[in-house]
Amino acid sequence: MINFGIEFVPRDLYWKTTFYAIQAEKTGFNTLWITDHFNNRNVYVSLAIVSAYTEKIRFGPGVTNPYMAHPIVTAQAVTTLNEIAPRRVVCGIGVGDRTTLEMVNMKPSKPLATIRESVRIIREITSGKNLEMRGEIFTVSGAKLNFRTTSEIPIFVGAQGPKMLALAAEIGDGVLINASHPEDIENAMGFIREGVAKAEKRLEDLEIAAYTSFSVAKTPEKAAKAVVPVVAYIVAGCPELVLQKHGISMETADKIREAIIRGKWKEAFSQVTDGMIEAFSICGTPETVVEKIDNLVKVGTTQVVAGSPIGPNIRKCINMIAVEVFPHFRAQENEQND
Amino acid sequence: MALEKIVEKIPSSSWDATSERLVDIVLNSPNANKMPSGLAKTILYYWQRDQLATKIGLQRLIEASMIVDPEKTIDALKELGFHELVTVLESR
What we know:
The structure holds 2 protein chains of 2 kinds.
Chain A: E1 3-8, H1 14-27, E2 31-34, H2 43-53, E3 58-61, H3 71-84, E4 91-93, H4 98-103, H5 111-126, E5 131-134, E6 139-143, E7 155-159, H6 162-171, E8 174-177, H7 182-198, E9 207-216, H8 220-237, H9 240-245, H10 250-261, H11 265-270, H12 274-280, E10 282-284, H13 286-298, E11 303-310, H14 314-337
Parallel strand pairs in A: 1-2, 1-11, 2-3, 4-7, 7-8, 8-9, 9-10, 9-11
Antiparallel strand pairs in A: 5-6
Chain B: H1 3-6, H2 15-28, H3 37-48, H4 55-68, H5 70-79, H6 83-90
């Protein structure tokens, strides 16, 4: 069975994000992710209000990072959310967006150790345990929440590179693969299997989410126009290895990143090519989008996250997904169940 | 005229279409930040309960869309054929 997630960026007014969240729940999305960047509205405040206006959709930060927020603070925040909406909270964590971190002179140093220790801290603290830990990155001496936790919070680890993918599979309840192209997902699955084997877990017990940049519209041109800014950010923050696989030079990515940092949006966006859109997004008409999601499912994806921008008009595009994309996959499920 | 009287002028057969148009105006207006937070929360409350295409939901949507984009609201209501309603709104 394929689950559908959706991502919102709280750059929008809080009530717009909440409006779309209610719509996502009504139309059958299973999980709602809200991004965590210091220059947008606060992720936990946004999630708290979403929790008040929804009943069943799972939700969580997608993703937070341990460089801007100490994992103990993340644990506190998601545990509080879990009190408001029991069994609906998930926690996405990753190394964060390089471009945004650079704006505040943060270097995502020792990412593997940082994520491994962060997940341990979040898991132990959200489970109500008293944590004593002397790690390579974090030291925690007898930390415990002063309030009761109501249920376990699944932790999803955002990953793109080989080592982080393996680690995500080893320590996470889910992996958020920062990719939209089936070849990237297929490639990721090899490292995910390594991580699962190391932890002696079953692959079936791991949720494997393709965290895509998504744009659906009635015409391919409209869909592409909406996705360009997001693809620019992806290319700017992408590891060299991934860029190379898609035939994109580091020099081009650097140019885009520098333009973004300087706020030269036109300069940054004008360098986004059709090839970049194809490599880093699910973009097109509903028919095209169905085909692309199908390809992701075939290589092992169990959750497809419709990430920003979703389309040129978010409300209409959510409806378009519900009416023209979901039925294809629901029909597939019904056939399998028969 | 109070908004509850104004929405009486919208036939129930047009509630869905009117709600759709007004929601679009409210969400996509460049002046969306003018929306009072209390009104936004009321709209979310009705949206969660599928009540935006009701008399009470439409009242709040008209109120909101007149705040964030009165011109587009008037144009939309004219297109929907609610000329009497437009006259009332313009005279308020």
